[in-house]
Structure formats: structure tokens, C-alpha cells
Amino acid sequence: MLIPYETLLQLPQETLANLIREYLFGQVEDGSFASLDEQELAQAIVQCQQALKQGKLKLEYSEDDESFAIRSADQIAQQQD
């Protein structure tokens, strides 16, 4: 189930930032980023917030394992095809 961006705005800022951090750390592990220092992390969080607002990234809730994950809209569209 996709969570609308407007709903994300109702979350405490810290909760949204933690979801984004989890996504970014996953990107580091996947090799999308070489590393993230504090300044790069802060900048990446802002970029992710913008991507969520623009619909390039989406927050998805998995009912199967009761978890949330940020994924690219393209990745979600491919799975639905």
C-alpha cells in the first residue's frame, strides 16, 4: 500500500527523517553511495524529502511483514506490471 505524501507531512519530522535515513543507509549498502558523512547525510535527507514531494520516491507499507520502505516510483511501477 502506498502512503500519500500528504500523510507523510502529518508524521513527526523525526519519524520521517528516520525513514529517510534507513532508505539512505540501504543505498550505501547497495553501493549507490560510497559513504555518507553528517553533512552529506543532511543534504541527502533534504534531497529525499524533495523526491518524495515530487513523487519520484514513494513510501510503501508492506502488509505481509508490517514494514515501511521508501522505494523509487519506477521500481514500484515495474513490480505492478
Automatic annotation (TrEMBL):
Gene3D superfamilies listed in its UniProt record: YehU-like
InterPro entries, alphabetized: UPF0270 (IPR010648), YehU-like_sf (IPR036685)
Domain of life of the organism encoding this protein: Bacteria
Family: Belongs to the UPF0270 family.
Name of the protein described by the UniProt record: YheU family protein
